[in-house]
Predict the structure of FAD-dependent oxidoreductase.
Amino acid sequence: MSSPPAQGARLVVIGAGAVGVTIALHLRRLGHDVTLLSSDAPGSENATSYGNAGWLSPGSVVPISMPGMWKKVPGYLLDAQGPLRLRPSSLPHIWLWLLRFVACGATRARARAIASALRPFLAGAADRHAALAAEAGVPELIQRKGLLIVYPDEAAYKADAFGWQLRRENGVRWNTLDRAALEAVCPGLSPRYGFAAQLPDGAHCADPGGYVAALATLARAQGVHFADGHVGGFVLEAGQVRGVRSSGRVVACDSIIVAAGMGARALGRMLGDSVPLVSERGYHVQVPDLAEEPPLPVMMSDLKFGITPMRGGMRAAGQVEFAPAGAPPDWRRARILLDCLRDGLPLVKIGGFSTVRHWMGNRPSTPDCLPVIGPSPSTRGVFYATGHGHLGLVSAPWTAELIGRMIGGDTVPEAAPYDPARFLRFRL
């Protein structure tokens, strides 16, 4: 519905996570007058991108919702220790979302469509991030060492055949390793893992929070304005956005880009749009000052968590918990991660829970496993860039390119799967 602003237009980007900061930087380079509005500092602990596992993986095309998932939902409700947790108290609030979520990947054709739509965000992501990090003066934060996905044995790997088929269909390269080869690449892994897939094109960010902060510093140096405050409403004239009300003032604009993560749901409601996001909560624990740690990121396929060497220690991240965004953290999820870490790396000395850093973030997830990127169906001058789930960091550069083209008035047919209008009749 949005009409493109002229070059040099006044644009407000709402949200200072990885997606919002990257969009603001890109739009400024296109010649626009850009203000980045957020109540949190870029790279701060409150941002979901801060606690990201840091993976920049082309292999992440495989959606969470896959054929046969509906059979597992009862188990998720009952298993408090499992890798995917549904709080029973949240069901009244998300059951419609959950039904659509399970249905979106219920057939192989549907899962293939999702994987194909995710591919552009992931293919070449390591190159895009490496270029941004170098320009921001932190090239060391993008590490191109590849990634490992480990399995108990070759039979377990073959049982995951459809996921690997989706990766192959979307251009992902990998080679397989037996136990001897795996031990050479990543010594110290538990003997329970006897087989692995190595993704040579994978990379990781060694400090997601620091990286986003560095990009924000670069954006400021290039002329992006930063404003601190909560969004309280919008100034609309004849169906066109003209300003953002924030902390007792109005920030005038020609267009806005809503990149506020979970906050986009409430902001969309203010604007008359349905942005049906549910919090796909993720947890991490970070162990500092380890004498030995894996030289590259490793995903334990059976335990559904990954470990990543970070600038501040080794981070174990994972666990999916569907719960209301405002509900208190369930730190049992982080304790489970610590137990998994001990199981996966039995030779590494890891202290108790009180000795490690633990964190929880609300990943904004849609019921069809695809982000919401594009113009508002109800208000001119409004664009959305949210709903990336666990792929926000890796997806940020390509999202920024799409938004830049849309703001410039280009037709962007490849963005059709992410169109906000697909949720016109779906409200939570």
Notes: The chain has one domain: 10-69+110-423.
